[in-house]
Amino acid sequence: MALDTIKSSVEELLPLITKQYDNECRLVTATCTDEGEEFRIIYTFDDSLQLINIEITVPKGVTVPSITGTYLCAFLVENEMKELFGIPIENIAIDLGGRMYMTDGMKSNPMARHAKELMKEEG
Amino acid sequence: MGGITVPFGPQHPVLPEPLHLNITYEDEKVVSLSPSIGYVHRGIEKAAEINEYTQNMFLVERVCGICSFMHAMCYCMGIEKLMNIEIPPRAAFLRVFYSEISRIHSHLLWLGLFADAFGFESLFMQYWAAREKIVDLMEMTGGHRVILSACAIGGVRRDLTPEMVKIAEQTLWDLKIELDRLNPVILKDYTVKKRTVGKGVLPKEDALILGAVGPMLRASGIAQDIRQTGYLVYKQLGFEPIVEQAGDSYARGIVRVKEVYQSIELALQVLADLPVGECAVKVRGNPNGETIERVEQPRGEVMYYFKANGSKNLERLRIRTPTFAHVPALLKMLPGSSMSDVPVIILSIDPCISCTER
Known about the structure:
The complex is a heterodimer of chains A (123) and B (358). Chain A is α/β, with parallel strands linked by helices and 123 residues long.
């Protein structure tokens, strides 16, 4: 069973998000999965109880634009992805600076596959 | 004039759980706030990748004590979708029964806490005394008072005997009579209205864009409830959401009061129509593929994302809980309100930090 998604490039993401806003869709959440060399992010919207999934795939280290300019409510999930997976997300409206869940001195991104290596580095 | 920033929580008398807001006031009016979560984050999504998929049901029940059954149910529904499992009709009815008594239990708990937030302690105790009837019912039918573990992949673990059905029906009727006596107090009392009407208003257009769900969304005039999709037997039951227009703390209270009555009706309907037969099917194999499942919890929509690869372990389990969706709405609801109203407004979202800190 595969998830029904609209595939987008990073460049096309914000216009697509704005389109959902114009259509009065509610942002349900964003979900990140670590695919090894890249991250996959699925932005899920609710349009009158129908789900719309917008998917982007980004190589690790590539910056992703924040969608909080359109959907302010995404700030929690974007901070979470930034911290737990290590995805660089720029211009988050309320940026908690990597300290939403993590404490000072912690560098690893516990949900990412490379977490074990980072934890070893941290000792 | 510069404001003064005061931390609200993580330890605060009105909050049973640690939510932290840095609130900036000018005189006694809120001008801005910055929310912060993470004090008790438990890494449940990560643990779900390490456990076998069959064990995760017991793990996700611990996301939240109050909605434990519905977390397990949403998880089971997602796994069943991935594995093409059709549950028996009796199991679908029993899942609705357990869901609705969980909703009654949650709303009565909230009504008590809400009364306590504005200092109405006798009402708090009355609501919690009424809630005991439901907790006793859960113990009788599920074997536990809070964490039921009644759901299972393929159906439900606990069936109801005819005697249990009779006792459950009587309990629900008794509760209805008790609520008829209690609810006019919270709905009509002058002091309750004084503390809640026009407080923490979330306009319709903001509710949608800020991602509000459940009673928060419906109290702002948006008729949206995941039960409208007709999952399990909700379509058969002719479910219609309860909607209020004002979008304030009082409207959120009215929605929950009415939803308790609605849940009593739904639970009674389910017990009356309970089909005969098995309550679970055997499950073999492992899930494979990717899907999203949603159910309507007492606080609103919960969403589970699953990614499985045919092994015993899930590659990814993502849980978006209702309170996680409600924290951003506070950014709109609190500014402009007075310092004394802050606890009541925060309580009006029915915050569950256990859910948020999954």
